[in-house]
C-alpha cells in the first residue's frame, strides 16, 4: 500500500531546514587565490585612505596665497624648485613664489596647500631655471585628496560572508591582507540514484537516460560556494545503499541524493532515513516541480533528498540547499534575492500548487520582464541552460497572463538577501 | 614640454580596439571540470528528448479505451500484471482489463496509451492477485511524455561561446558530452607600474600605497574568462621595462599594464610603445575616470595601458579588455549588457566628459534603481566592493538628479550583448 504524504508550504519547508543551518570554520588563502571565495571575517581598513594628503592629478603643488591676484590679464610666474614622483617625497618646504612638479598620487610637499593641473600651466625657462605661468587663482585645498577623506582606519568595508569580487580583492590588497581569512567551503556529497541512469559516456538504451542531475548539482554546489564530492551512483541493493549513505555522512558536511524519494517501489531513501534513525523534516512540499523533495537530519547533518527529475532537483537545490551553504560561509544574505517583474508570456496551466518556472530576465526601459524559458514540463532540461531566474507562480489560480506582476528569484546574483526578507516577500 | 593629447569618444575607442579582436582555439575538458568555462562549439542534441514515450509520474500504465465508462459510481477494476521500474522494460503487451505499475521516467509498455497517477487509484487484492480501482475515464496520451516532445535530435541547444552554467552542464551530460569542447582561455599578462607601489605585505610608508590594481585586475580577468599571468612590478629603469614588456608579449595573448600611461615624467609606457614600434590606437579617451587609458597593438597583439588609478583601471578593463576576452572565447555577446535604470541619488558634479560611476543596482517593484556607491573620487577604492554596475553619465551636463533615467552597465551578468547593441545603446 502506498504512503499518503501531507505537503507543507515552501516557506515553511525553507524555515524548517534553516533551523539546522550552521556556520563553518575560517581558513586562510593567499590574496592571489581569494577571488570567488567568501570573507571569513569582516574586512577592516588598517589605515586612513588616503594615508597622507596627496595629489589626484599630474600638476604643480602651490601655495594658494601666491595665486590670489593671478588672472588671464595678470598671470603669475612661479619657479619650479623640484619634482615629486609618486612614491617619493620632497624634503624641503616650498616658499613664496615657488612650486614643485607633482605626479598623480604623490604626497603634497610642506608649505603647499593646492595643486594646479598640468593642463592649466605654461612651462618655460627663465635665467636657465624652470618656471611656470598660472592664469587664475586657487583656494586652499583645491585638488588635494586629504588624509582619510575616503576611509578612516578601523572602518568595516565588507562584512564576513561577502562574496569576494574584484572590488573586494582591491580592498584586501589596499589594506594589507596578504593572507585572506576565507570561509571554509562545506564539503557536499552527491549520490545519484535511479536504475534508469546511464553514465554520460554510455550509449542510449531503451528505457534509460543519461545521468545529468549529478553533474548539474555539482555545478550548482560550486556556484553556491560549496565543495562538491561526487560519490557516484547508488547500488540496486537496499542494504548496500544504506551503507553508502552512512559512509558518505562521515566524509561530508551535507549529503545530497537525487532521486529515490518518491513513493515508488524502488525509492529507497525513505527506508534509509528510517534505518539511519534520521529526523525527516518533511517529505512533501506544496510546489511543482519538486513536490517529493525530502529533507532529513541526522546528528545535525542535513540530508537533502532531491527529486530525480532534473528541474525539480535544480529548484530544490536553490530553495533549500543554497541558503544552508551560504550560512556555512558566514553570510547573513543566505537566500537568493526575490524581486518583482512583469510576466513576459502567458502561463495558462491551472496551478493548484506554488510553481517555480525557469525563466530569463530581460530589461526593458528600466523595467524587468521575466519570460518562462520554453515548455515547462518538469522533465524538460533544454530550457535550463538559458534560465537566470525562477518565476514564482503561487498556487490556487487558473493560470497567469502576460503582463501580470510576479516575483522572480535571481539565480546568478551574488548579493542575496536575508532569510527574513526571502520568507516575507 | 608636455604632449597634448586629443581625446576620442568611448564608443570610438571600443570600436577601434575591437577591430583587433581574435578568436582562440578549442580544447577539451572532462564534464566534471566544465562549469564556469565557455562552450568551444555549439551544443547539439544527439538524440530526441524523451528518447522513448515515458511516464512523467508514478502510477499505472493503462489502455484508455478500458476506462471509457469509468466513474465514481461505476469504478473500473484492472488487474496489475507487472511493474516497470525506471530504466527497465515490460516485455509483453498489456491486454484488455490489465494494467502495469509504472515508475516515473519508465517506458510506456506496448498496448498502453495513458498513465493514471498513483494518487487516483485504489490498490487491493482479489483472488490473491493485485488489482486497482479507477473512478474516471482517461484519454489517449494522458500523462505520457512523448518521444522528442522536448527536443529533437540535432537541435542546437546553446551556441559556442556560451558561459557554462549548471543548466548547460545538465544539457552536456544529457547529450553525452563526456569531454566538453571549451574555448581555450586567453593568457593575459599583468604588469603593475608605479614607484609609489608597495607590495601587499609591506608596511605603509610616507607617500606610498599598496599595489591593489594588480590583484584587482587578476580577478577581473578571471571573472571575464581569461587566464591571468601576474608578471610583477615594473623596474624603475626604462630599458629594463622595455625588455620586460617585450619578453611578456612572447608569453601571453594580451598584455595589461597598470599605470605609467599619463604624461608624467615617470610614465614610461608611451616611450616603450615607440621602442616596440607598436601601433597606438588611442592614448586619451573622453571619459572619467580613465582618460589616460592607452591601447596599442604590436603584430596583432593588444597592449592595454590602463590607468594606475584603481577606479580608472577597473573601468578601462571592463570597457576595453573584457570584450576582447569574450571574443577570444568565441562569444558573440562580447560586451556587458547596458540597461536603463533610475538614478537613485543626485550626482551634481559638472560633467564635461562621459563619466562611469560605480554603483549598485536595486530592484523596487519591478523597476531598476542604480545608486552611486559612495563618494566617486577617482582614487577611491572603498566603493568598489559593493559595485555591481557602472552608471553611465554622459558628458556635457551640469550634473544629474535623483530620479533621472540613466544607462547602467551590468558588471556581474554572464549573458552580455553584442558589440553592435553595446555601441548603439
From TrEMBL, chains A, B:
Pfam families: MoCF_biosynth, MoeA_C, MoeA_N
Gene3D superfamilies: MoaB/Mog-like domain, MoeA, C-terminal, domain IV, Molybdopterin biosynthesis moea protein, domain 2, Molybdopterin biosynthesis moea protein, domain 3
Enzyme Commission number(s) from the entry: 2.10.1.1
Pathway(s) per entry: Cofactor biosynthesis; molybdopterin biosynthesis
This protein's record includes keyword Thylakoid: no
Protein's job: Catalyzes the insertion of molybdate into adenylated molybdopterin with the concomitant release of AMP.
Family: Belongs to the MoeA family.
Protein name: Molybdopterin molybdenumtransferase
Species this chain originates from: Aquibacillus halophilus
Amino acid at each position: 500500500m502506498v504512503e499518503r504524504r501531507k505537503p507543507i508550504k515552501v516557506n515553511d519547508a525553507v524555515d524548517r531546514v534553516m533551523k539546522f543551518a550552521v556556520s563553518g570554520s575560517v581558513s586562510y588563502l593567499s590574496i592571489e587565490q581569494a577571488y570567488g571565495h567568501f570573507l571569513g571575517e569582516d574586512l577592516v581598513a588598517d589605515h586612513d585612505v588616503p594615508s597622507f594628503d596627496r595629489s589626484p592629478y599630474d600638476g604643480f603643488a602651490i601655495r594658494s596665497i601666491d595665486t590670489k591676484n593671478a588672472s588671464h590679464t595678470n598671470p603669475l610666474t612661479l619657479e619650479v624648485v623640484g619634482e615629486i614622483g609618486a612614491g617619493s617625497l620632497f624634503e624641503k618646504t616650498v616658499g613664496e613664489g615657488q612650486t614643485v612638479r607633482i605626479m598623480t598620487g604623490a604626497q603634497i610637499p610642506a608649505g603647499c596647500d593646492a595643486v594646479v593641473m598640468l593642463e592649466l600651466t605654461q612651462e618655460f625657462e627663465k635665467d636657465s631655471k624652470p618656471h611656470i605661468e598660472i592664469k587664475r587663482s586657487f583656494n586652499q585645498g583645491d585638488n588635494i585628496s586629504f588624509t582619510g577623506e575616503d576611509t578612516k582606519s578601523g572602518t568595516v568595508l565588507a562584512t564576513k560572508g561577502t562574496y569576494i569580487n574584484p572590488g573586494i580583492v582591491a580592498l584586501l590588497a589596499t589594506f594589507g591582507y596578504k593572507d585572506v581569512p576565507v570561509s571554509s567551503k562545506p564539503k557536499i556529497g552527491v549520490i545519484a540514484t535511479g536504475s534508469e541512469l546511464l553514465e554520460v559516456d554510455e550509449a542510449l538504451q531503451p528505457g534509460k537516460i543519461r545521468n545529468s542531475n549529478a553533474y548539474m548539482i555539482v555545478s550548482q554546489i560550486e556556484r553556491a560556494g560549496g565543495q562538491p564530492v561526487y560519490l557516484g551512483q547508488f547500488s540496486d541493493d537496499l542494504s548496500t545503499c544504506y551503507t553508502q549513505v552512512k559512509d558518505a555522512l562521515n566524509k561530508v558536511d551535507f549529503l545530497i541524493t537525487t532521486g529515490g524519494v518518491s513513493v515508488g517501489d524502488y525509492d529507497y531513501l525513505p527506508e534509509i532515513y528510517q534505518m539511519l534513525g534520521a529526523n525527516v523534516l518533511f517529505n512533501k512540499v506544496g510546489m511543482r516541480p519538486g513536490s517529493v523533495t525530502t529533507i532529513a537530519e541526522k546528528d545535525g547533518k542535513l540530508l537533502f533528498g532531491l527529486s530525480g527529475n532534473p528541474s525539480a532537483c535544480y529548484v530544490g537545490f536553490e530553495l533549500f540547499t543554497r541558503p544552508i551553504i551560504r550560512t556555512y560561509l558566514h553570510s547573513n544574505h543566505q537566500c537568493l534575492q526575490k524581486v518583482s517583474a512583469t510576466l513576459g508570456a502567458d502561463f495558462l496551466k491551472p496551478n493548484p500548487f506554488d510553481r517555480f518556472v525557469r525563466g530569463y530576465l530581460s530589461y526593458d526601459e528600466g523595467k524587468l520582464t521575466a519570460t518562462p524559458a520554453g515548455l515547462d514540463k518538469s522533465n524538460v532540461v533544454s530550457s535550463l541552460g538559458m534560465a537566470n531566474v525562477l518565476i514564482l507562480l503561487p498556487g490556487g489560480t487558473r493560470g497567469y497572463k502576460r503582463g501580470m506582476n510576479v516575483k522572480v528569484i535571481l539565480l546568478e546574483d551574488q548579493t542575496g538577501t536575508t532569510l527574513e526578507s526571502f520568507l516575507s516577500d
